[in-house]
């Protein structure tokens, strides 16, 4: 599976989020690889109305109905058709670990899938204790890189992450600088079930071509 994180890139915002999602859907249908657009909260409802793909958002807050100005409620995310959320991405950390614990628990209550990011093996171990749907290992220093990926720079760490996550019974996703079928193939060989990608697809001149190339990494 491939999570495509639209972040707040212009190429993945507003009407462009809908256009990019259309490309993701075409590639998913053509290749039969599961592809998940992870869009901004503000674009989610429009994107959901335009696609058959499962749509995720990039963050949700550990709140219930009440006085929480500017926060996002897990139950309202479910109501508009959002199927899952990223949590603890290195670009959107919670104020403290307890808030992350509560966010995962709130998502479980409303049946929203979760992917909890970790920047290190230590954080990954802690993330596994929360029993999210997926965990992801992403070294922050490689995020956005166009020359070096987590798969080429840190194969030993991915292999260790795979052992830890297998023991914890939670599927592993890896991300940061993923840009080629070789990166995907290597990540899967090391024990991940999928990748999270942004720059290589969202900022590409030809996102379809880049995405098709990534899907090639799933072929045996
Ligand atoms: O969530 C995935 C993202 O952080 C990876 O970004 O630009 O390195 O593919 P990028």
From TrEMBL:
Protein name per Swiss-Prot or TrEMBL: Uncharacterized protein
Highest rank taxon of the organism: Bacteria
UniProt keyword list: Isomerase
Keyword Transmembrane helix belongs to the record: no
UniProt-listed InterPro entries: Aldolase_TIM (IPR013785), TIM_sf (IPR035990), Triosephosphate_isomerase (IPR000652)
A UniProt-annotated Pfam family: TIM
Gene Ontology molecular function: any one: triose-phosphate isomerase activity
Species: Candidatus Woesebacteria bacterium RBG_13_46_13
């Amino acid at each position: 599976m491939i999570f495509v994180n639209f972040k707040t890139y212009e190429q993945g915002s507003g009407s462009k989020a809908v256009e990019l999602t259309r490309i993701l859907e075409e590639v998913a249908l053509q290749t039969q690889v599961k592809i998940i657009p992870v869009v901004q909260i503000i674009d989610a409802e429009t994107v959901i109305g335009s696609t058959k793909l499962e749509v995720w958002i990039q963050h949700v807050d550990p709140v219930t109905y009440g006085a929480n100005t500017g926060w996002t409620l897990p139950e309202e995310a479910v109501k508009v058709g959002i199927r899952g959320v990223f949590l603890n991405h290195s670009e959107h950390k919670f104020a403290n670990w307890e808030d992350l614990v509560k966010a995962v628990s709130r998502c479980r209550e409303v049946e929203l899938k979760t992917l909890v990011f970790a920047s290190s093996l230590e954080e990954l171990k802690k993330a596994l204790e929360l029993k999210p749907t997926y965990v992801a290992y992403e070294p922050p220093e490689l995020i956005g890189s166009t020359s070096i990926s987590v798969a080429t720079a840190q194969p030993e760490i991915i292999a260790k992450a795979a052992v830890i996550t297998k023991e914890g019974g939670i599927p592993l996703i890896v991300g940061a600088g993923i840009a080629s079928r070789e990166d995907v193939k290597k990540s899967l060989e090391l024990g991940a079930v999928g990748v999270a990608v942004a720059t290589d697809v969202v900022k590409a001149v030809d996102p379809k071509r880049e995405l098709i190339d990534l899907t090639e990494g799933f072929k045996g």
